[in-house]
Amino acid sequence: MSEELEQFPKQASPWNTGMKWGVILFVLAAAMYYLTHMNTDFGSVESYEATQKNPIQYAGFLISLAILIVAQLEHRNKDLGGYMSFARAFGIGTIVFLTYGLLDSMLTYVEMSMIHPEVIETLQNIQMKNLQSGNFSAEEMEMAYERSKSFTTPTAISIVKFFGSLLLGVIFSLLTGLFTRKANPDEI
Q1: Is pLDDT of 21 > 50?
Q2: In angstroms, rounded to a whole number, what is the distance separating the alpha carbons of residues 25 and 68?
Q3: Per-residue pLDDT, 186
Q4: Cα–Cα distance for residue pair 65/46, rounded to 1 Å
Q5: Residue 42: is its pLDDT beyond 80?
Q6: I need a labelling partner for 163 at 20 to 30 A (CA). Which of 4, 53, 105, 173 fits?
Q7: Each residue's pLDDT tens digit, 130-165
Q8: Do residues 49 and 133 touch, judged by C-beta distance below 8 A?
Q9: What angle do CA 20, 26, 28 make, to 5 degrees?
Q10: Where do the DSSP E strands lie in the chain?
Q11: What value does the mean pLDDT of the chain take?
């Protein structure tokens, strides 16, 4: 019977902890986004560009790292009895960002297709402005602009955000897993 209890921590699923912290990360990121974009005129290129250059947005990376570390440590200490492999640390971090990315991409789709659809036109205007600052002929600019329009739809942007979040999560999880792992001396 005691052998079965000792095996229990090793069988704990990372999904509950990972999804919980992914939702928390999403709520914090969404709150930060709306606080920094409250006064943004999404139809104005200048207003939108100024918001994108706001240094407070970089705080999101630090918050993401902190939440990832807390999620890994909680899983290690509460679910796994104080020990966790690097692979498990990587796995829980990936689940956090998978959950976050899924929620964030759904919110992005709703926002860009229903709440602020004018942001799509603003993004396309920014692309045209960037093309005009290059050394392109009018024909090359028009061709590049038409091609880029397919990437500035709510669906395309949401998909890119999802995979971008997942990639960021993989990178962060690899880094933080090095510090949050803890080998079980009984298994060495």
Answers
A1: yes
A2: 9
A3: 86
A4: 31
A5: no
A6: 53
A7: 777 777 777 877 887 788 778 889 999 999 999 999
A8: no
A9: 105
A10: none
A11: 86
Structure tokens at 71: 């999620």
DSSP states of 68-84: HHHHHHHIIIIISTT-B
What's at 177, amino acid-wise?
G
Residues across the chain: 188
Domain limits of the chain?
Answer: 13-183
Q: How far apart are CA 102 and CA 158, in angstroms?
A: 9
The pair of structure tokens assigned to 10 is: 């090793």
The closest alpha carbon to 45, from 117, 126, 113, 103, belongs to: 126
8 band by pLDDT with thresholds 50, 70 and 90:
very low
Dig out the tokens for 19 from the structure: 């999804």
Q: Tokens for 134?
A: 């290059």
Q: Partners of 84 in the beta sheet?
A: 182
